[in-house]
Amino acid sequence: MMQVMGTLYLVRHGQASFGAADYDQLSALGREQCVCLGRYWQQRGIIFETVLTGSLKRHQQSLAGIAEGLGASYQPLVWPELNEYDSEALIEAIHPAPLARPDSPELYRHHFRLLRDGLKAWMRGDTQPRGMTSYVEFSAGVADALDHVLKNCSGNVLIVSSGGPISTAVGQVLSTPAETTIELNLRIRNSSVTEFAFTPKRHMLVSYNNLPHLDSEQGVAMVTYA
Q: Is 139 found in the same domain as 67?
């Protein structure tokens, strides 16, 4: 029987401030999503031996909410390679003309159509979005974080990150084409939990994009994607 050394929980940040001047802030709902997740884990006796986060504000704020719900305190290893890609730069690389702020359903859909196309072009190496690394480098940074867990961790490990790195990690574990991560990415929900079992040699996907902490009538109303 394969020896499992631990469980890695990858959490996407809570709802951020989509359409605002500064997206990189949790909304009040986003904070509450993360507190609910921490409370869910606290009720089940889950504690974390190791915590990694990206360096974005929404990652740090999400961890703070989770820790509040858990009644715990963490000093995370900050891993900038777990930061999200720049969606505005991706879109600008294929659509240089200014875009209206996405404040209606149609503009919201248009934004994500452009983002899908921008991601495809970046992954193929057809564009070099302003201020961003190549997709090869982005993917390698995610792989380095996963490798760090294999080599240095055991027990329960928490990563708080964003949809891009988490979907990329799932794609790496399942050996899917890079473009498959786009569809994984664009359906990932705020504060969702993806679970890997890991040994010293490899990660294994257990579940993806789950919201066990929002599995109630009240919780369903708290589900968001951006």
A: yes
Q: Distance between CA atoms of 115 and 109, rounded to whole angstroms?
A: 10
Q: Binning pLDDT at 50, 70 and 90, where does residue 17 land?
A: confident
Dihedral over Cα of 82, 88, 93, 95: its sign: positive
pLDDT at 19 over 70: no
Read off the amino acid at residue 126.
D
Report the chain's mean pLDDT, rounded to a whole number: 94
| CA dihedral sign, ordered 159, 164, 166, 172 | negative
Closest CA to 7 of 191, 159, 145: 159
Q: How far apart are CA 4 and CA 70, in angstroms?
A: 25
Q: Cα 64 to the chain's mean position, in Å? A: 16
Residue 226 or 147, more confident: 147
Q: Which H or E run contains 205? A: strand 203-210
Token pair 């193929």: residue: 124
Question: Which residues pair with residue 70 across a beta bridge?
Answer: none
pLDDT digits (tens, 9 = 90+) for 37-81: 999 999 999 999 999 999 999 999 999 999 999 999 999 999 999
102 and 165, same domain (yes or no): no
* Radius of gyration for the chain, computed over Cα atoms and rounded to the nearest angstrom: 17
Edge-first strand listing for the sheet containing 6-12: 77-78, 50-53, 155-161, 6-12, 193-198, 203-210
In a domain, 172, yes or no: yes
